[in-house]
Design brief:
Order of helices and strands of chain A: EEEHEEEHEHHHEHEHEEHH
Low-confidence stretches of chain B: 15-30
CATH superfamily of chain B: MetI-like
Strand content of chain B: under 5%
Mean pLDDT of chain A: 91
Radius of gyration of chain B: 23 Å
CATH class of chain B: Mainly Alpha
Largest sheet of chain B: none
CATH class of chain A: Alpha Beta
Strand order of the largest sheet of chain A: 7-8-9-3-10-11
Strand content of chain A: 25-35%
Structural class of chain A: alpha/beta
Largest interface: A-B, 29 and 21 residues
Shape of chain A: globular
CATH topology of chain A: Rossmann fold
Helix content of chain A: 25-40%
Helix content of chain B: over 70%
Distance between the termini of chain A: 36 Å
Radius of gyration of chain A: 18 Å
Number of strands of chain A: 11
Distance between the termini of chain B: 23 Å
Number of domains of chain B: 1
Order of helices and strands of chain B: HHHHHHHHHH
CATH topology of chain B: MetI-like fold
Number of helices of chain B: 10
Shape of chain B: flat
Number of strands of chain B: 0
Largest sheet of chain A: 6 strands, mixed
Number of domains of chain A: 1
Oligomer: heterodimer
CATH architecture of chain A: 3-Layer(aba) Sandwich
Number of helices of chain A: 9
Low-confidence stretches of chain A: none
CATH superfamily of chain A: P-loop containing nucleotide triphosphate hydrolases
Mean pLDDT of chain B: 86
Chain lengths: 251, 251
């Protein structure tokens, strides 16, 4: 089943055309990595998918729910209340974690499920604890974000996103603010989630990780998808010159 | 820092010694220093209470009013924003004393409402409140704008509504940011209450001036000054405590 379907998305900031014509769909259980140079529109694509930005043209669909339709080349969004429902489909993990500094780890994770989703507090807390255990930071429940390392903060952020029980999880360069050691902590968590068949879309610069973990790799450049397919094909034998040049530089 | 009050008291006490006073030509009174001090304080006491009342009511009204002005100032509607901006520029750009006069005499000159004797107390509270609200509004705005964009985005993805985001995520962080400038403003207010003399409101300093004139002695003014100082020490102490308490989530 297709969980996410984006067709012919266009997005400009003033005169700058960031996304030119992108279509992408994600199957349930699929892990998709998005690669590409800075400014290629990867983050903007993710921000449009997570409704942090509105797209100018194109359609967006989660499962069977339409989020926006294309009417005469312009995106028209559904009502606010429907959008609120759609937000239950996905979670987003940021490059800079964006934890709430005045909340403890536990409250960071539980506040939205309890107060927004109106779930039982005891149940949510139990779930949060088991998530933190999976992340290996169960001893940090009562800490404030500032007392944690970057890697620990990002793990809390992942737990916070997972506690909402999303069907699809987006990652916007989740390791770019971390040093190599902490990066490997986070990649380990992502590998674990992949093994649990969590549907994930990951914008990343970690080529090796993308090759090993993803089912599909998308390479973006200047607002277009220039190449996509199995990681072995895209990363090891790229057909496009731009992709080859970019990957060579990374090696 | 801790020695400040001690030094101040020492200087103050030195002034109270009869010998010092006479040798400075302040007073040839036969009364002992301490007895004179008590009589001055008892003469000042009603003024002290009035100053305190003016201070308290101004804070109670201006702080929430400032939040309202701040919201208007940040409104999406350009007209509302402009009105709030204009209000702030007038309140900050003209003398507080003039504003007090306008509030006091305005009803009479515009509507021919006769001035009552107790109106000057209310006029003082109104004048101070609308003036300080403008300053507080700008302080709040700086506090709100100091909250990173990522906090709003994280809240948005987790499904918080705009008001929930403000109440739960932004406001607590804003409060922490604004405590130092708010302390400044409160301390200024303590001293500014003396401006109420402009509308014949006899608060502590005005009273001290009257006593000083009647006795041909400058000491009552110093006694009044001492009260302002002590009161501001208390303000600084209390605000320092609150600041420390709000720092719980910082290293």
């Amino acid at each position: 089943m297709k969980l996410l379907e984006i067709n012919n998305i266009k997005k400009s900031f003033d005169d700058l055309e960031v996304l030119k014509d992108i279509s992408i769909s994600v199957e349930e259980g699929e892990v998709v990595s998005i690669l590409g140079p800075s400014g290629s529109g990867k983050s903007t694509l993710l921000r449009c998918a997570t409704l942090l930005e509105t797209m100018d043209a194109g359609t967006l669909k989660y499962g069977g729910d339409v989020v926006c339709e294309d009417v005469d080349g312009k995106s028209v969004y559904v009502s606010k209340s429907k959008i609120k429902e759609v937000k239950n489909y996905f979670g987003l993990v940021f490059q800079n974690f964006n934890l709430f500094p005045h909340y403890t780890v536990m409250k960071n994770i539980c506040d939205a499920p309890v107060h927004i989703q109106k779930r039982d507090k005891k149940e949510v807390e139990k779930e949060a604890l088991s998530l933190l255990e999976q992340m290996g930071i169960a001893d940090k429940v009562d800490y404030y974000p500032c007392q944690l390392s970057g890697g620990q903060q990002q793990r809390v952020a992942i737990a916070r996103a997972l506690a909402m029980n999303p069907q699809i999880l987006f990652f916007d360069e989740p390791t770019s603010a971390l040093d190599p050691e902490l990066t490997s902590e986070i990649l380990k968590v992502l590998r674990f989630l992949a093994s649990q068949k969590m549907t994930m879309v990951i914008v990343t610069h970690e080529i090796d990780f993308a090759r090993n973990v993803s089912d599909r790799v998308i390479f973006m450049d200047e607002g277009y998808i220039v190449e996509q397919g199995k990681p072995q094909d895209v990363i090891d034998n790229p057909e496009n010159d731009r992709v080859r040049a970019f990957l060579n530089k990374l090696k | 820092m801790k020695k400040k009050p001690v030094i101040a008291i020492a200087v103050f006490v030195a002034f109270l010694i009869p010998g010092t006073m006479t040798s400075c030509g302040f007073s040839a009174d036969s009364e002992s220093g301490l007895g004179w001090l008590f009589s001055t304080i008892s003469q000042l006491s009603s003024g002290i209470w009035l100053s305190l009342a003016l201070f308290t009511f101004t804070l109670i009204f201006s702080m929430p009013l400032g939040l309202l002005v701040c919201f208007l100032r940040r409104s999406r509607f350009k007209v509302v924003e402009l009105i709030a901006k204009f209000y702030i520029s007038i309140m900050r750009g003209t003398p507080l004393m003039l504003q007090l006069l306008v509030v006091y005499f305005g009803p009479y000159y515009v509507f021919r409402i006769p001035l009552s004797t107790e109106y000057n107390f209310y006029a003082a509270i109104i004048g101070f409140s609308i003036n300080y609200a403008a300053y507080f509004a700008e302080i709040y705005r700086s506090g709100i704008e100091a909250v990173p964009k990522g906090q709003y985005e994280a809240a948005d993805v987790l499904g918080y509504s705009r008001s929930q985001t403000f109440m739960k995520i932004v406001f607590p962080q804003m409060v922490r940011h604004i405590l130092p400038p708010v302390t400044n403003e409160i301390i200024t207010l303590v001293k500014d209450t003396s401006l109420a003399f402009a509308i014949a409101f006899v608060e502590m300093f005005t009273m001290a001036k009257q006593i000083a004139a009647a006795d041909s002695n400058i000491m009552p003014l110093f006694v009044a000054g001492f009260f302002y100082y002590v009161f501001n020490l208390v303000v600084a102490f209390v605000m320092g405590k609150i600041e420390k308490k709000m720092n719980y989530y910082q290293k």
